[in-house]
Amino acid sequence: MDRQNEDQPGQVEIKCLFCRIANGQQPGSQVMYEKNGIAIFKDIRPAATHHYLVVPQKHVNDPKRLRYEDAELVERLVTCGQEFLVKQGGKVSEARLGFHWPPFNSISHLHLHVIYPTSSMGWVASLIFRPDSFWFVTASWLIDRLRKMK
Fold it and tell me: Catalytic one among 50, 51, 100, 111?
């Protein structure tokens, strides 16, 4: 698949809300973690006590468009999200990590949801972030999918 302008790694899209937040260019937004091209900030509609979004600072469109070569990026997002959650006092074993699958994503910028604890999720949130549904996939499912593309 040939990537167009918005999909090319290495670019920051000024029209993309998550590009602006991740790069400190969105007034009123706070990046909680920033290192090696990855940023973490709070979800504006938290599904649980802790709900973070882990994003690449350079624009990557969505999980459906990822290829084999992108598996390492997804693994880095997961590792950063898990380490950040632990530093916030959370337990990875009680967290949900995953991605909304197009067309059920609200922002077309790759973002990993880190939600903890899942036991604090309400009924609606548990549906919105239901693992391995048509609309939400776990990080491990996505990594497996990408690794099988070779």
Answer: 111
